[in-house]
Amino acid sequence: MADMVSGDVSNTAESQKMASVSVILIPWDPESQEHAERMAQQRIACGWKQDQIENWKDQQREGLIGLHWIVLPPSDPNTTSRLERHIFAFPDEATPLHNTCKRVLSRSHTPDPAISTFIPIGHISLDSWSPYDSLQTSPSNGVYSLTTFYVSKALQYGGIGGAAMTACETMAARDFGAKAITLDTLANEEYRPDNPRRAAMGLEQTRPRVTPQDWYQRRGYIIYLKKEDGFFDTDPTGKIWGATLVCLKKELV
User: Fold this and answer.
1) Structural domain tally of the chain?
2) Cα separation of 67 and 127, whole Å?
3) Are 4 and 208 in contact (CB under 8 A)?
């Protein structure tokens, strides 16, 4: 399931600010302990999947997933202030990583010598494989999937999530011949104040400004399937709650 990311807001000033945001995607290196540790830190901050790092190493090596760091361009005048906000919130992420990945999605990759080190402020994964048939992932048919997406909570609602999606879609079409991207996320009804699962999990007060479903739909993703009990949560009493997911697709060509 695609992670919840920052949403758009409606006022003109904020929209103009978001339009000016750009990011660079740098592949995650499964051979680097520093990369693995930073990914674990960001998954803990995200709130789930922190136990998947070892599996992701194998899947990244095999070309099944394409995890990429979200990086702010060094030339952007706002990069310094944004990194300061990120590091203030997550001081353990202040050490730069080395740009060392040599292969991604079964293709050789040459690191940009102009960016030998970087501080990632999130990550996004373009995958050529998924354990879920509902995502229709099939590189031979030009369909890739997005299953892991995180933006630093210190920088959400500022356009970085949208910039990362644009960069990922561009990369998918340009470098891998993707014709479409699919993903799944919690359905809108899962964020209603009277939703019993949210109440049982103590999440009544945590509704995002924009739900993930609405955020993706604003970016041109269209629902093609709804799955009841597509995701499960366990409340503090041990009761298991099923949640409804929606599968969405965006045609790139």
Assistant:
1) 1
2) 8
3) yes
Concatenating the DSSP letter of every residue in 56-69 gives: HHHHHHTTS--EEE
pLDDT for 177 equals: 96
The answer, as to whether pTM is greater than 0.85, is yes
Over the range 171-194, which residues count as b (16 or more CB within 10 Å of their CB) and which as e?
A: bbbeebebebbbbbbbbeebbeee
Instruction: Please report the pLDDT score of residue 3 as a whole number.
Output: 65
Instruction: Give the distance, in angstroms, between the CA of residue 107 and the centroid of all CA atoms in the same chain.
Output: 21
Is residue 107 domain-resident?
yes
**Closest of 52, 3, 4 to residue 28, by C-alpha:** 52
Distance CA 127, CA 79 (A): 28
Closest CA to 177 of 140, 137, 146: 140
pLDDT per position as a tens digit, 193-221: 888 877 777 776 667 789 999 999 999 99
Pairing of strands 122-127, 67-71: antiparallel
Asked if residue 35 is part of any domain, the answer here is yes
The CATH number of residue 74's host domain is 3.40.630
Give the DSSP letter of residue 207.
Answer: -
Range of the domain at 74: 12-183
* Residue in the block written with tokens 């945001």: 21
pLDDT beneath 50, residues of the chain: 4-18
Check if the beta carbon of residue 161 is closer than 8 Å to that of residue 219. Answer: no
- Alpha-carbon 22 to chain mean position: 15
